[in-house]
Amino acid sequence: MGLSGLIRRFKAMRRINREVAIWYHEKYKTSCMAGSARVIGLCLERSEMIIGSLAHEGLLGPDDVQVPSQASLQDLEAAHFTGYLDQTTNPAVLAEIFGVDPGLVMVDEVLSAQRYAVGGTVSAARAVAAGQIRLAVNLGGGFHHAEPDKGAGFCVYNDVAVAIRLLRSRGFDGRIAVIDLDYHEGNGNVSCFANDRSVGLYSIHGSQWTQLKSTGYSAHVLSPGSGDVEYLGTLRSTLPGFLSGNKPELVFYIAGNDVLWGDRLGDFRMTPKGVLDRDVFVHNTVKNAGAGMVVMLGGGYTSESWKCMLNFLRYLLTDQVKCRWSAEPRLRSRFNRIAARIWRGTYGMNKEEKIPDVLEFSEADLLGDISRVFGGNKRLLGYFSQHGIELALEHFGILDQLRKKGFRAFRIEADASDQERQLIRVHGRRGGEAENKILIELVMSRLSLLPEKGLGLPEVLRFIAVEWLMMNDPGAGFSNERPQLPGQTHPGLGIGDHVRELLVQVCGRLELDGIHGKPSHYHNAILVSQWFRFVDPADEGKMMAMKHVLADKGMARASGLVTAGKLRLADGAPLLWNPSDQVLPVSPRLKAYFDSPAYLEASRAVCVRLLGQGLHAAE
Questions:
Q1: How far apart are CA 377 and CA 366, in angstroms?
Q2: Residue 376 and residue 341 in one domain
Q3: Distance of CA 241 to the CA centre of its chain
Q4: What is the number of domains present in the chain?
Q5: d(Cα 568, Cα 523) in Å, to the nearest integer?
């Protein structure tokens, strides 16, 4: 890129909106959330990643971030009973709120984090109410599950309620509105403002948390599987009327990103582009109503959800609506580049990417093409030598991931003698251990699948069939942070994403449609559901309905209920788990099938039907 191009790029990305202020404190993060039994794989560094990305793009400097003070106990008493505030020093109370074992709760860290986040919302609200700025963003807060006398759902204190009560105590008498677009209903806000006619509440959600009715509450419940069209249609047809009816001077906006497709605590199917369209519409509608706005981060803790707030902030700071997002996992692009050094034509590879001039290793080294004649059908999947497998594990970073966990002295075992059960084992040991232990065991084969007629699929689909995949840490024990799931004898290694993406590259090289599995347990399917889909939309809809009912149970507990046959319809009939074809699409034709309106509507219809038949957990 020449100098003129760099200048154009700088001008395109320079910050032009100085009426936006951002609040953040390094103590916002609560480490005990990593051990929550409610969901596995929480991304706790989302605020830091947002700030780092904006700074890297030159949109944010050190002086652009406001550092809040911690909310005082007197501040918290504006919205919470003193007796409840006393109870929050009890580890057992906090453990219930965060879904962790009391032994994992560091009381001072948890309460400090929540108080700083409350302080951020309070400070931001005061700045907007005083007319110092028109829009403030707190990269924390949105604790809408906290009621005056209790907390829930990762929320100890209700920052919006505290901020509103303190504004009132300082003489702000303008009308206020709370727009809550988190996937989960804000029961705390409803409880706090049920009888306050000066505060209007608006919500679109998929999970109801309260039956309490509130004056001026505009609530819209969407069914599981709702995507951009349904969500944005509801928003555009109802939010303008709500604002014109309430005429607020100040709006609190909880921009929850757990509405994103693949969120383990939600079951909407919104895309990042849809979420950005949502946020832009809210901003413009509030702006046209003449109100100032305070934005809170709300829910959404996946590795992708934080990018939604990044997109929104980039728009607020530059007035440019750009959704920088890829439908593929973050590892995919890196693995594509590695694969490009060895072969070309991999599915999903950007052909315009520059191929390195100097290859770190050759295709022959990695895959053994030249020596295929010496191996016959003894090669895994008819292609890979044992030497090539070891090189692939090395260069795609699998062995390096194991080294970071303390393992050494790897031994790779490969056996292709049984074409129906081709085996790869990775043995290793930690320092001080005398013997190698099995860390990874993969049993796979090539599979030709004949889909049922009427699904709109080709007559034959070809996959890598994963018959068995074990990735375990034999020296580790189970804990609340890593609870034992059905079928486990040891905790996992946390390298599932890397192994999955390596198999995707193999599919591309062998021109297969994708990766095939038949999950034996509910949790196996849920843990990969961000990328895998059931071939039959009826099976996908069934899993969606189960997920909706079990959303607040925690993964281990939820899977145990399914295994025990505790999910039942209103007439008492059990809804049992039956292993079915679940695949990760790699080929363009299979991706198109899963993205088709026919598939999406069919799976959603099954989910809605099961929920309508009273599906519940009979505990």
A1: 17
A2: yes
A3: 31
A4: 2
A5: 18
- C-alpha dihedral (348, 350, 356, 359), degrees to nearest 10: 10
Query: Could you read off the pLDDT of 23-61 as tens digits, one per residue?
Result: 999 999 876 555 454 555 567 788 999 999 999 999 988
Residue 492 carries which DSSP code? B
Show the beta-strand stretches assigned E in 401-460.
407-415, 422-430, 437-449
Per-residue model confidence (pLDDT) at position 434: 83
Co-location of 288 and 426 in the same domain: no
In SS3 terms, 351-397 reads as CCCCCCCCCCCCHHHHHCCCCHHHHHHHCECCCECHHHHHHHHHHCC
Helix (H) or strand (E) holding 498: helix 496-509
Residue 314: the pLDDT is 95
Question: Residue 501 contacts by C-beta under 8 Å, 6 or more apart in sequence?
Answer: 329, 331, 332, 335, 396
Cα–Cα dist 136/366, whole Å: 52
Q: Residue 131 belongs to what domain range?
A: 16-325
In degrees, to the nearest 5, what angle opens at C-alpha 552 toward C-alphas 548 and 556?
A: 100
pLDDT of residue 377 exceeding 80, the answer is no
The percent of residues in the chain predicted with pLDDT above 70, rounded, is: 88
> Is the pTM for the entire model greater than 0.85?
no
Enter the tokens of residue 137. 């963003």
- Residue 458, CA distances (Å) to 211, 270, 462, 592 in order: 47, 28, 10, 12
Q: What is the pLDDT of residues 520-538, one digit of tens each?
A: 999 989 988 989 999 999 9
Compute the average pLDDT of residues 489-502: 89
Rounded-to-10 torsion of CA 397, 400, 401, 406:
170
Q: What CATH number is associated with residue 181?
A: 3.40.800.20
Instruction: Assess contact for 248 and 164: CB atoms under 8 A.
Output: no
